[in-house]
Each structure stands twice: as C-alpha cells, then as structure tokens.
Predict the structure.
Amino acid sequence: MNHRRAFIALTLAALGASAALAADPIKIGLVLPMSGPFAAYGKQIEHGVKLYLAAHGEMVGGRKVELILKDDSPGTAGDVSKRLAQELVIKDKVDILAGFGLTPAGFAVAPVATEAKKAMVIMNAGTSSITTKSNYIVRTSMTLPQGTAPIAAWAAKNGIKKVFTLVADFGPGHDAEAQFKKTFGEAGGQVVGEVRAPVKNPDFAPFLQKIKDTKPDAVFIFFPPGSETIAFMKGFAERGLAAAGIRLIATGDLSDEDTVDAIGDPALGLITSFHYSEVHKSAENKAFVEAYYKAFPKDRPNFMAVGGYDGMQLIDLALKKTGGNADGDKLIEAAKGLKWISPRGPVSIDPETRDIIQTEYLRRIEKIGGKLQNVEFDQINEFKDPGKQ
Ligand code: PHB
C-alpha cells in the first residue's frame, strides 16, 4: 500500500470507530439522595437532568443518553456514595459520574473519579475545596463562599455592625462561617458569637436563647435546606427574636423555593444572596420554569434543579467539543472555559479551578401572586468562588 492509500484506509477506520462511538448511548451515572432526609435534593436534581434531556431529544453531544441512578441516601455518608460510584464505574461501565447532593458524597467520590479517569460533574455539593480533590471534577452548582461574601458585604453596608453566626457543622457550614467572618470583618463588622450545630436534628432552642441574650444586630445562618431550616425559621419567629429587633441574613439556601412555602410568612422580608431565583427575569428562566411546572406540577423549581439542568448542559457542550468522545481527560479539557446562558443568568467554567463563575444576586422575600418569592434587587456579575483565594 502506498502512503496515500494507507492514509485513506486509516482515516476510514477512524471514521468507522467514531461512528460506532457516536451510535452507542452515553452512560451517565447519577449518585443522588433519593430517599431519607435529603430526598428533595435528589428529586430536584433529577428533575433538572430530565428537563434538559427532554428539551434536547434525550441526547447530549449527538449521543443518546442512558441514565443510571443510584440512591446514596442519606447523602451524608461518604462510604455509601463511594461504593455506589465504584459500582457505576466497574459494573455499569458509565462514561461520566454526576449528581452529588451533599459535600460528603463529593469528597468521597473524588478519588474514584481520579482512579477511573472519569469526568465527575458536581450538581449541588458546595464546599469550596471539593474541586481541588480531583482534576476530573467540574461543578455546575455553587460554592458556599460564593453565596456568602455578597450578603456579608451587603450587611456591612446596611447598618448591621454585630452579627452572630450559626452554621451546620460540616464543610459547607465551615466555609460559610469563614467567608462571612472574612468579608464582614474586612468591611468593619464584628462577629459577636458563633455556633456550629449538628447537621441533623439540632435543638435550636438553646442557640436561639443565646442569640437573644447576646443581642446582635443580625444572625447569619447556613443550614442545608430541609426540616432543620424550617424549624429554625419557626423558632426565630416564635421566640421573639425578630420582635427584639434582631435581623436575619443568610445564603439563599435558607429561602429556596422547595422549602419556603413550609416556612411561610416568617420568611417575608428575609434578605439573602444567591445565584438562582424562580422569578429571575430572563427568557431562559421563563422557559425553564414553564417546562418545570408542566412536567412536575406538584413541585417548585429551585437551585438544585438548575444545578442538574446545567450539569447536563455542560456535558452536552463539552461533548460537542470532543465530537462525542467522553474520555475523562478530553471531556474535562473541553469543559474548561465553557460559557453558556443558564436559567440563573450567564455562567462559565473557570479554566483554573473547574468551578462555576456566575452572577450573585441580592434578594428579598416578597409575596407575588400569593407565592413567597426571592425578588432580586442587586447583583454582582461574573463572581468567582472567593474560597479558592
Ligand atoms: C452541601 O452538602 O455541600 C450542601 C448541601 C445543601 C446546600 C448547600 C450545600 O444547600
């Protein structure tokens, strides 16, 4: 065979191989808490994933998608998440790992992604350092420092001088506490008390009493949304902290659309900073929210659904760049620097950290058409995770 013929033969073989590759469905393994205390996280993320696929012919990067969902309930037991991720890689032979509702799952699965050389797409877990634990991780949700710095700066600018911080005693809570102290402190504010409470079933009564006695201008709180945040908000109202003139500030985890109805009117007026609101005004969000209610009329779309939706969007865009090739190294290279318009606003993937760069909004809870909503009133564009500095 002369050189020209050999070249043509090789090209045809390569084309054949990539055609076969593209014809095979791409297997995406989702690790999510689908039952137990954080079942709502899995539900929301799965809703987002399904909405993206439904709007794109059940395909990403030109390939049909096969989803394999594993329930890592309770979501906070890293060993459970790790075992399921290993099963997905070894038994199910997935191309991509995705999901991860809570931080312990993100940390525990990072070495699995590294060893298997599979891209790992974090759709919720928000501790800043997770993305440093494997070069195969990319995140489409948020980090806690990213959500915390804007409300800390807002508080200092709006007459709040003394703050008591109350956080859940695990990664995202520690991140929120550290960033709040840093930003608020640098702006001249003072943290006059701090408490770390257990993630599950804390008794808020003694903390609320301590806060009342300390008389701060405001309380800053981060807790993973669920029965705890609902109980805290009720306790805050019932124990007369608001009546004593103590204000409440938080990241948007406290007033997310999935739990705010259960909190009810005590949430009115709450100011938070965050990256997603159901009433964010954009064509992309309007389409997302309409599709959400059509498909899931009993639920309200929240930031976790958007994290799932954008996780699929990222996989789709990265695969389009690699020509459908899901090789972990190629896919992560393709993900670096990607930009798109999310339902939350413009986003991109920081090529240095593989974390998401996005707009942070300041929002106030108001009632719109009888529904409690996070109404955006200010914003910081292209905000990188300050936790990496
Ligand atoms: C987390 O575990 O990282 C986490 C959970 C719930 C949130 C944010 C972060 O709202």
About this structure: The pocket of P-hydroxybenzoic acid is lined by residues 102-103, 125-127, 172, 224-225, 253 (CB under 6 Å). DSSP finds twelve helices and 15 strands in the chain. The mean pLDDT is 95.
